[in-house]
Amino acid sequence: MCLILVAGCRKDPDIKLGDTTPYQFNYPERIEKYLPPISVPSNNPMTVEGVELGRKLFYDTRLSADNTMSCAGCHAPDQSFSDQNKPTSVGIDGIAGRRNSMSLVNLGWMSSFFWDGRKATLEDQAFAPVNDPVELHSNWNQVVEKLQEDEEYPLLFEKIYGTSTIDSVMVANALAQFERTLISGDAPMDKFMNANRAIGSSGWSTADEFAAYQGFVLFIDEEKGDCFHCHGDNFNPLWTDNLFHNNGLDAVITDKGLGEFTGNPADDGKFKTPTLRNLAFTAPYMHDGRFETLDEVINHYSEGLQHSSTIDPLMKSVDEGGVQLSPEEKYYLKMFLLSLSDSSFIENPAFSNPW
Fold first, then answer.
1. Mean pLDDT to the nearest integer, 180-190
2. Does a structural domain hold residue 47?
3. Domain span at residue 225?
4. How confident is the model at residue 9, as a pLDDT?
5. Separation CA 93–CA 154 (nearest Å)
6. What is the pLDDT of residues 290-333, one digit of tens each?
7. How many Cα neighbours within 13 Å face the side chain of 328?
8. 184, 212, 234: which is the final residue of a domain?
9. Rounded average pLDDT over 197-212
10. What's the whole-number average pLDDT of the chain?
11. What separation in angstroms does the CA of 187 have from each of 179, 192, 232, 295?
């Protein structure tokens, strides 16, 4: 449902489908084994044509006020659909936002979006950047008008939705369809776990894979790395619990995160657990991009935890500053984190710019 009532945005969720082909998801082996199929909203069924329309829209700069930036401007495919090397994303007016651009990966299994969880569906999420004054800084009136004037778009919308009259709900639905196809699950560690042994794949030697596996052992060790409570284990290929935590970044909370959305002081400083997939492509890290490298991230949990009133109880080592990893343990853990990076995802032509 669109929460901002503007011309070009309608509230009717029932959209007629035209002559379309049902879209079939292709799940990687580990994801298919441990996750349920993606649940698709009944009012936005996945079609081949809808996905392709969403891909065109995702890369179309006409979604911004000055026609200079698309969704991909902050979610680049070669960076696992994040905004690499920028702590916080910068919109069309050169104004930096407050938060780092999250990687768009395995979204079909998520029940909330943005660092603070303020949107519950991909369809709702797709509305936000267009209106945001520090992102695309446009409005849906202008966007729909520009798309309607295009020679091709009305024909595509008519084929998919049975009408050539474009509105923002259909645009958001198409964007959501494309984003649901952004599935990643073929990293070196996936191959290692699928085979239950080191196999030397994707440029990784068997020695690298064994080092990464040592890191995984630390990752799931409650007395050492103790990472799995928030980021999952070998039975959770999403590598996130999709919940919200205060992970000890600050003693004084200046960005309330989830608390800003819920209004509950107990939620202040809590942010959504990001996936660990594709970290090799998505630096910098954390909700505000404060850490430029994975070494800094590991050091934070090892000896940099800060106590605050809402710190998560899972940060059990906060009084010691962290879990106190040795240099060798830090190396193994870093190798594990890097082993979750899936180069086939960022190279997938189905996700690339069609223009």
1. 96
2. yes
3. 188-343
4. 47
5. 29
6. 999 999 999 999 999 999 999 999 999 999 999 999 999 999 99
7. 2
8. 184
9. 84
10. 93
11. 20, 9, 16, 20
Do 336 and 196 reside in the same domain of the chain?
yes
Q: Are residues 212 and 158 in the same domain?
A: no
Q: What is the pLDDT of residues 13-67, one digit of tens each?
A: 455 566 899 999 999 999 999 999 999 999 999 999 999 999 999 999 999 999 9
The string of DSSP letters for 138-196 reads --HHHHHHHHHHSSSHHHHHHHHHS-S---HHHHHHHHHHHHHT-----SHHHHHHHHT
Query: Does pTM top 0.85 for this prediction?
Result: yes
Domain membership flag for residue 1: no
**pLDDT per residue over 110-133, tens digit each?**
999 999 999 999 999 999 999 999
pLDDT, one tens digit per residue, over 257-301 is 999 999 999 999 999 999 999 999 999 999 999 999 999 999 999
Helices 140-149 and 122-131: crossing angle, nearest 10°? 100
* 3-state SS class at 270: strand
CB-CB contact of 209 with 188 (8 Å) = yes
Q: What does the longest C-alpha to C-alpha distance in the chain come to?
A: 63
Q: What is each CA distance from 323 to 52, 250, 302, in whole angstroms?
A: 46, 17, 5
Domain-located, residue 232: yes
Q: Is residue 355 part of a domain?
A: no
Structure tokens at 197: 């042994």
Instruction: Please check whether residue 151 is in contact with residue 166, taking contact to mean a CB–CB distance below 8 angstroms.
Output: no
180 & 202 share domain: no
- Rounded percentage of the chain residues whose pLDDT exceeds 90: 90
DSSP 8-state class, residue 101: P
**Interhelix angle 294-303/327-338, nearest 10 degrees:** 130
- Residues 276, 172 within the same domain: no
Asked if 243 and 105 sit in the same domain, the reply is: no
Q: How long is the chain? A: 355
Element (H, E) at 245: strand 244-245
Please say which residue of 150, 184, 218 terminates a domain.
184
Residues 283 and 171 in one domain: no
Examine the domain organization and report whether 211 and 246 are in the same domain.
yes
CATH number for the domain that contains residue 314: 1.10.760.10
User: Of 89, 106, 109, nearest to 97 (Cα)?
Assistant: 89
Give CA–CA dist 318/314, Å, rounded.
9
Residues 222 and 298 in one domain: yes
Residues 6+ apart with CB under 8 A from 143: 8, 62, 63, 130, 168, 171
